[in-house]
Design goal:
Radius of gyration: 14 Å
Number of strands: 11
Number of helices: 0
Shape: globular
Helix content: under 10%
Strand content: over 45%
Structural class: mainly beta
Distance between the termini: 40 Å
Order of helices and strands: EEEEEEEEEEE
Length: about 120
């Protein structure tokens, strides 16, 4: 089992920045990849960025060049630096972990709200 706890959400004006954190605990040795997802009201949950245990990274096109995903292995923490925020980035952001041998993200945090005002 893996436990994930997000923090760092809040209210920011358009053009501002926020940094989200995701602290992982439990069977973290089993994690193959971690990702950030978001869900806005009335929308489906969508992938924002993901980072693999080997270091590979991918971003959704809508955030490429503005968001940066990273991790601190010593602290068992993943980050999402969000710059040049837009009102359309408003959503609940979730941290997720995909264990080795699984084809899906089996572990999820509780989510943190990000609100970007115009």
């Amino acid at each position: 089992q893996v436990q994930l706890v997000e923090s760092g959400g809040g209210l920011v004006q358009a053009g501002g920045s926020l940094r989200l954190s995701c602290a992982a605990s439990g069977s973290i040795f089993s994690i193959y990849a971690m990702g950030w997802y978001r869900q806005a009201p009335g929308n489906q949950r969508e992938l924002v960025a993901r980072i693999f245990s080997g270091g590979g990274i991918m971003y959704a096109g809508s955030v490429k060049g503005r968001f940066t995903i990273s991790r601190d292995n010593a602290a068992n923490t993943m980050y999402l630096q969000m710059n040049s925020l837009k009102p359309e980035d408003t959503a609940v952001y979730y941290c997720a972990a995909r264990p080795a041998g699984s084809s899906r993200y089996d572990y999820w945090g509780q989510g943190t709200q990000v609100t970007v005002s115009a």
